[in-house]
Amino acid sequence: MPPSDNRAAPAAADTDTPDTGSLIVFDQVVKRFGDLTVLDHLDFSVAPGERVTLIGPSGSGKTTILRLLMTLEKVTEGTILVGGEPFSHMRRGDRLVPASESYLRARRKTIGMVFQQFNLFPNMTVRKNLTEAPVHVLGLGKEEANARAEELLDLVGLSDKIDAHPTQLSGGQQQRVAIARALAMRPEILLLDEVTSALDPELVAGVLDVLRTVAETTDITMLCVTHEMGFARDVSNRVLMFDQGRIAEAGAPEEIFGDPKEERTKAFLRSVL
Ligand code: ADP
Protein backbone atom coordinates (compact mmCIF):
# COMPACT_ATOMS: atom_id res chain seq x y z
CA MET A 1 0.00 0.00 0.00
CA PRO A 2 1.44 3.42 -0.84
CA PRO A 3 1.93 5.68 2.18
CA SER A 4 -0.59 8.19 0.87
CA ASP A 5 -3.38 5.63 1.47
CA ASN A 6 -3.25 6.47 5.13
CA ARG A 7 -4.06 10.13 4.58
CA ALA A 8 -7.37 11.89 4.85
CA ALA A 9 -8.85 14.25 2.26
CA PRO A 10 -6.38 16.74 0.80
CA ALA A 11 -8.27 19.74 2.15
CA ALA A 12 -7.61 18.82 5.74
CA ALA A 13 -4.68 16.44 5.91
CA ASP A 14 -2.17 15.41 3.36
CA THR A 15 1.11 16.46 4.83
CA ASP A 16 3.53 14.85 7.22
CA THR A 17 3.70 17.90 9.44
CA PRO A 18 0.65 18.49 11.60
CA ASP A 19 -1.49 21.30 10.27
CA THR A 20 -1.67 23.93 13.00
CA GLY A 21 -4.99 25.29 11.68
CA SER A 22 -6.64 21.96 12.45
CA LEU A 23 -8.69 21.43 15.56
CA ILE A 24 -7.79 17.75 15.81
CA VAL A 25 -4.59 16.15 14.54
CA PHE A 26 -3.65 12.48 14.72
CA ASP A 27 0.03 12.26 13.93
CA GLN A 28 1.38 8.75 13.39
CA VAL A 29 -0.88 7.39 16.11
CA VAL A 30 -0.40 3.77 17.07
CA LYS A 31 -2.68 2.04 19.55
CA ARG A 32 -2.02 -1.50 20.66
CA PHE A 33 -3.84 -3.70 23.10
CA GLY A 34 -1.22 -6.32 23.95
CA ASP A 35 -0.19 -7.88 20.63
CA LEU A 36 -3.16 -6.46 18.78
CA THR A 37 -2.43 -3.33 16.75
CA VAL A 38 -5.73 -1.47 16.57
CA LEU A 39 -4.48 1.80 15.03
CA ASP A 40 -1.48 1.58 12.78
CA HIS A 41 0.45 4.85 12.30
CA LEU A 42 -2.71 6.79 11.71
CA ASP A 43 -2.56 10.32 10.29
CA PHE A 44 -5.56 12.54 9.84
CA SER A 45 -6.75 15.95 10.85
CA VAL A 46 -10.06 17.68 11.27
CA ALA A 47 -10.66 21.37 10.65
CA PRO A 48 -12.80 23.45 13.01
CA GLY A 49 -16.48 23.00 12.18
CA GLU A 50 -15.91 19.95 10.03
CA ARG A 51 -18.26 16.99 10.32
CA VAL A 52 -16.41 13.78 9.75
CA THR A 53 -17.94 10.33 9.59
CA LEU A 54 -15.90 7.23 10.35
CA ILE A 55 -17.09 4.12 8.58
CA GLY A 56 -15.64 0.66 8.12
CA PRO A 57 -15.94 -2.93 9.30
CA SER A 58 -16.41 -3.77 12.94
CA GLY A 59 -13.05 -3.94 14.73
CA SER A 60 -11.30 -1.52 12.35
CA GLY A 61 -10.50 0.92 15.20
CA LYS A 62 -13.19 3.61 14.84
CA THR A 63 -14.41 3.61 18.44
CA THR A 64 -10.84 3.54 19.69
CA ILE A 65 -10.26 6.88 17.94
CA LEU A 66 -13.16 8.45 19.85
CA ARG A 67 -12.01 6.88 23.12
CA LEU A 68 -8.50 8.28 22.62
CA LEU A 69 -10.00 11.72 22.10
CA MET A 70 -12.01 11.37 25.29
CA THR A 71 -8.77 10.31 27.04
CA LEU A 72 -10.46 7.05 27.97
CA GLU A 73 -7.44 5.36 26.35
CA LYS A 74 -3.84 6.44 25.90
CA VAL A 75 -1.88 6.29 22.65
CA THR A 76 0.88 3.68 22.41
CA GLU A 77 2.93 5.83 20.00
CA GLY A 78 2.44 9.08 18.13
CA THR A 79 0.68 12.29 19.07
CA ILE A 80 -2.85 13.61 19.23
CA LEU A 81 -3.23 17.38 19.17
CA VAL A 82 -6.46 19.15 20.00
CA GLY A 83 -6.43 22.89 19.43
CA GLY A 84 -2.70 22.65 18.71
CA GLU A 85 -1.90 21.21 22.13
CA PRO A 86 -0.88 17.60 22.73
CA PHE A 87 -3.29 15.48 24.69
CA SER A 88 -0.83 13.31 26.53
CA HIS A 89 1.36 16.16 27.80
CA MET A 90 0.94 19.59 29.33
CA ARG A 91 3.20 22.62 29.35
CA ARG A 92 5.19 23.50 32.43
CA GLY A 93 7.14 26.63 31.56
CA ASP A 94 8.75 25.79 28.26
CA ARG A 95 8.82 22.06 28.94
CA LEU A 96 6.23 19.39 28.13
CA VAL A 97 5.49 17.03 31.00
CA PRO A 98 3.03 14.10 31.15
CA ALA A 99 -0.55 15.29 31.57
CA SER A 100 -2.00 15.18 35.08
CA GLU A 101 -5.53 13.91 35.77
CA SER A 102 -6.78 17.44 36.49
CA TYR A 103 -5.28 18.69 33.20
CA LEU A 104 -7.01 15.85 31.34
CA ARG A 105 -10.30 16.63 33.07
CA ALA A 106 -10.04 20.23 31.94
CA ARG A 107 -9.27 19.19 28.36
CA ARG A 108 -12.16 16.74 28.36
CA LYS A 109 -14.64 19.55 29.13
CA THR A 110 -14.23 20.81 25.59
CA ILE A 111 -15.31 17.48 24.13
CA GLY A 112 -18.75 15.90 24.39
CA MET A 113 -19.44 12.28 23.67
CA VAL A 114 -22.66 10.41 23.09
CA PHE A 115 -22.50 6.65 23.34
CA GLN A 116 -24.50 3.79 21.93
CA GLN A 117 -26.03 3.27 25.38
CA PHE A 118 -27.49 6.54 26.55
CA ASN A 119 -25.83 6.61 29.99
CA LEU A 120 -28.23 9.15 31.48
CA PHE A 121 -28.21 9.47 35.27
CA PRO A 122 -31.24 7.23 36.00
CA ASN A 123 -32.17 8.76 39.34
CA MET A 124 -32.21 12.36 38.09
CA THR A 125 -34.87 14.19 36.12
CA VAL A 126 -34.13 15.27 32.58
CA ARG A 127 -33.60 18.83 33.85
CA LYS A 128 -31.05 17.64 36.42
CA ASN A 129 -29.31 15.47 33.83
CA LEU A 130 -28.81 18.60 31.72
CA THR A 131 -27.84 21.04 34.47
CA GLU A 132 -25.66 18.88 36.75
CA ALA A 133 -22.37 19.15 34.86
CA PRO A 134 -22.80 22.79 33.68
CA VAL A 135 -23.36 23.81 37.32
CA HIS A 136 -20.77 21.60 38.99
CA VAL A 137 -18.10 21.39 36.31
CA LEU A 138 -18.44 24.70 34.43
CA GLY A 139 -19.62 26.68 37.46
CA LEU A 140 -22.72 28.07 35.73
CA GLY A 141 -25.44 29.63 37.88
CA LYS A 142 -28.63 27.55 38.30
CA GLU A 143 -30.71 30.00 36.29
CA GLU A 144 -28.34 30.06 33.36
CA ALA A 145 -27.99 26.27 33.41
CA ASN A 146 -31.78 25.93 33.47
CA ALA A 147 -32.22 28.34 30.57
CA ARG A 148 -29.63 26.40 28.60
CA ALA A 149 -31.38 23.09 29.44
CA GLU A 150 -34.72 24.46 28.25
CA GLU A 151 -33.23 25.78 25.02
CA LEU A 152 -31.56 22.44 24.28
CA LEU A 153 -34.66 20.40 25.09
CA ASP A 154 -36.49 22.58 22.62
CA LEU A 155 -33.79 21.82 20.04
CA VAL A 156 -34.23 18.06 20.54
CA GLY A 157 -38.04 18.36 20.66
CA LEU A 158 -38.51 17.26 24.27
CA SER A 159 -39.51 20.42 26.13
CA ASP A 160 -42.47 18.62 27.67
CA LYS A 161 -40.21 15.98 29.26
CA ILE A 162 -38.11 18.31 31.39
CA ASP A 163 -39.41 16.91 34.68
CA ALA A 164 -39.53 13.27 33.55
CA HIS A 165 -37.11 10.59 34.69
CA PRO A 166 -35.14 8.65 32.06
CA THR A 167 -37.13 5.46 32.75
CA GLN A 168 -40.28 7.26 31.62
CA LEU A 169 -38.76 7.93 28.19
CA SER A 170 -38.35 5.76 25.11
CA GLY A 171 -34.84 4.81 24.00
CA GLY A 172 -34.98 7.41 21.23
CA GLN A 173 -36.08 10.12 23.65
CA GLN A 174 -33.31 9.13 26.08
CA GLN A 175 -30.76 9.39 23.30
CA ARG A 176 -32.07 12.84 22.36
CA VAL A 177 -31.67 13.89 26.00
CA ALA A 178 -28.13 12.44 25.95
CA ILE A 179 -27.35 14.61 22.92
CA ALA A 180 -28.79 17.67 24.67
CA ARG A 181 -26.77 16.83 27.78
CA ALA A 182 -23.55 16.66 25.79
CA LEU A 183 -24.37 20.01 24.13
CA ALA A 184 -25.16 21.62 27.50
CA MET A 185 -21.41 21.69 28.15
CA ARG A 186 -20.96 23.80 24.97
CA PRO A 187 -18.25 21.46 23.71
CA GLU A 188 -16.07 22.41 20.78
CA ILE A 189 -16.14 18.83 19.59
CA LEU A 190 -18.97 16.33 19.64
CA LEU A 191 -18.12 12.64 19.36
CA LEU A 192 -20.92 10.28 18.41
CA ASP A 193 -20.40 6.56 18.74
CA GLU A 194 -23.06 4.56 16.90
CA VAL A 195 -25.74 6.52 18.68
CA THR A 196 -28.61 4.79 16.92
CA SER A 197 -27.46 1.17 17.01
CA ALA A 198 -29.16 0.30 20.31
CA LEU A 199 -32.48 1.78 19.17
CA ASP A 200 -35.55 0.09 17.76
CA PRO A 201 -35.72 0.92 14.04
CA GLU A 202 -38.74 3.20 14.39
CA LEU A 203 -36.84 5.43 16.82
CA VAL A 204 -33.74 5.94 14.68
CA ALA A 205 -35.12 8.66 12.41
CA GLY A 206 -35.98 10.99 15.30
CA VAL A 207 -32.44 10.84 16.67
CA LEU A 208 -30.88 11.36 13.25
CA ASP A 209 -33.16 14.34 12.65
CA VAL A 210 -31.93 15.91 15.87
CA LEU A 211 -28.33 15.41 14.81
CA ARG A 212 -29.07 16.92 11.41
CA THR A 213 -30.48 19.97 13.20
CA VAL A 214 -27.39 20.18 15.41
CA ALA A 215 -25.18 20.01 12.33
CA GLU A 216 -27.21 22.69 10.54
CA THR A 217 -27.63 25.10 13.45
CA THR A 218 -24.24 24.97 15.18
CA ASP A 219 -20.63 25.12 14.06
CA ILE A 220 -19.65 22.31 16.38
CA THR A 221 -17.01 19.94 15.06
CA MET A 222 -18.45 16.43 14.81
CA LEU A 223 -16.78 13.05 14.62
CA CYS A 224 -19.29 10.38 14.09
CA VAL A 225 -18.97 6.59 13.98
CA THR A 226 -22.06 5.28 12.27
CA HIS A 227 -23.59 2.49 10.24
CA GLU A 228 -26.26 4.87 9.01
CA MET A 229 -24.91 5.59 5.56
CA GLY A 230 -27.79 7.93 4.69
CA PHE A 231 -26.92 10.05 7.68
CA ALA A 232 -23.22 9.98 6.81
CA ARG A 233 -24.07 11.12 3.31
CA ASP A 234 -26.38 13.94 4.45
CA VAL A 235 -24.53 15.34 7.40
CA SER A 236 -20.80 14.89 6.93
CA ASN A 237 -18.31 16.98 4.96
CA ARG A 238 -15.90 14.08 4.81
CA VAL A 239 -16.00 10.33 5.19
CA LEU A 240 -13.06 8.26 6.39
CA MET A 241 -13.25 4.58 5.53
CA PHE A 242 -11.24 2.50 8.00
CA ASP A 243 -9.82 -0.94 7.56
CA GLN A 244 -7.53 -2.64 10.05
CA GLY A 245 -6.55 0.51 11.87
CA ARG A 246 -5.72 2.53 8.79
CA ILE A 247 -7.64 4.85 6.50
CA ALA A 248 -8.41 2.83 3.40
CA GLU A 249 -10.06 5.74 1.61
CA ALA A 250 -11.17 9.26 2.43
CA GLY A 251 -13.23 11.80 0.60
CA ALA A 252 -16.42 13.79 0.32
CA PRO A 253 -19.55 11.70 0.91
CA GLU A 254 -20.51 11.88 -2.76
CA GLU A 255 -17.11 10.42 -3.72
CA ILE A 256 -17.08 7.64 -1.14
CA PHE A 257 -20.70 6.62 -1.66
CA GLY A 258 -21.04 7.52 -5.33
CA ASP A 259 -17.68 6.51 -6.72
CA PRO A 260 -15.56 4.53 -4.24
CA LYS A 261 -12.10 3.70 -5.54
CA GLU A 262 -10.93 1.02 -3.12
CA GLU A 263 -12.18 -2.54 -3.33
CA ARG A 264 -12.40 -2.62 0.48
CA THR A 265 -14.72 0.39 0.46
CA LYS A 266 -16.88 -1.14 -2.24
CA ALA A 267 -17.13 -4.43 -0.32
CA PHE A 268 -17.97 -2.63 2.91
CA LEU A 269 -20.65 -0.49 1.27
CA ARG A 270 -22.18 -3.58 -0.35
CA SER A 271 -22.42 -5.16 3.09
CA VAL A 272 -24.25 -2.22 4.70
CA LEU A 273 -26.33 -0.63 1.96
P1 ADP B 1 -14.67 -0.46 15.69
O1 ADP B 1 -15.21 0.71 16.42
O2 ADP B 1 -14.18 -0.13 14.32
O3 ADP B 1 -15.63 -1.63 15.66
P2 ADP B 1 -12.90 -0.72 17.94
O4 ADP B 1 -12.10 0.51 17.99
O5 ADP B 1 -14.05 -0.84 18.90
O6 ADP B 1 -13.38 -0.98 16.47
O7 ADP B 1 -11.97 -1.98 18.21
C1 ADP B 1 -10.84 -2.29 17.45
C2 ADP B 1 -10.20 -3.54 18.00
O8 ADP B 1 -9.66 -3.27 19.28
C3 ADP B 1 -11.17 -4.70 18.19
O9 ADP B 1 -10.52 -5.88 17.78
C4 ADP B 1 -11.43 -4.70 19.66
O10 ADP B 1 -11.73 -5.99 20.12
C5 ADP B 1 -10.10 -4.23 20.22
N1 ADP B 1 -10.21 -3.54 21.53
C6 ADP B 1 -10.88 -2.39 21.75
N2 ADP B 1 -10.77 -2.01 23.04
C7 ADP B 1 -10.00 -2.97 23.64
C8 ADP B 1 -9.52 -3.16 24.98
N3 ADP B 1 -9.79 -2.28 25.95
N4 ADP B 1 -8.75 -4.23 25.20
C9 ADP B 1 -8.46 -5.11 24.22
N5 ADP B 1 -8.87 -4.99 22.95
C10 ADP B 1 -9.64 -3.95 22.65
Automatic annotation (TrEMBL):
<dbReference type="GO" id="GO:0005886">
    <property type="term" value="C:plasma membrane"/>
</dbReference>
<dbReference type="GO" id="GO:0015424">
    <property type="term" value="F:ABC-type amino acid transporter activity"/>
</dbReference>
<feature type="domain" description="ABC transporter">
    <location>
        <begin position="24"/>
        <end position="269"/>
    </location>
</feature>
<dbReference type="InterPro" id="IPR014343">
    <property type="entry name" value="Ectoine_EhuA"/>
</dbReference>
<dbReference type="GO" id="GO:0005524">
    <property type="term" value="F:ATP binding"/>
</dbReference>
<keyword id="KW-0813">Transport</keyword>
<protein>
    <submittedName>
        <fullName>Polar amino acid transport system ATP-binding protein</fullName>
    </submittedName>
</protein>
<dbReference type="InterPro" id="IPR003439">
    <property type="entry name" value="ABC_transporter-like_ATP-bd"/>
</dbReference>
<dbReference type="InterPro" id="IPR027417">
    <property type="entry name" value="P-loop_NTPase"/>
</dbReference>
<keyword id="KW-0547">Nucleotide-binding</keyword>
<keyword id="KW-1003">Cell membrane</keyword>
<dbReference type="InterPro" id="IPR030679">
    <property type="entry name" value="ABC_ATPase_HisP-typ"/>
</dbReference>
<dbReference type="InterPro" id="IPR003593">
    <property type="entry name" value="AAA+_ATPase"/>
</dbReference>
<dbReference type="Pfam" id="PF00005">
    <property type="entry name" value="ABC_tran"/>
</dbReference>
<comment type="similarity">
    <text>Belongs to the ABC transporter superfamily.</text>
</comment>
<dbReference type="InterPro" id="IPR050086">
    <property type="entry name" value="MetN_ABC_transporter-like"/>
</dbReference>
<dbReference type="GO" id="GO:0016887">
    <property type="term" value="F:ATP hydrolysis activity"/>
</dbReference>
<keyword id="KW-0472">Membrane</keyword>
<keyword id="KW-0029">Amino-acid transport</keyword>
<dbReference type="InterPro" id="IPR017871">
    <property type="entry name" value="ABC_transporter-like_CS"/>
</dbReference>
<keyword id="KW-0067">ATP-binding</keyword>
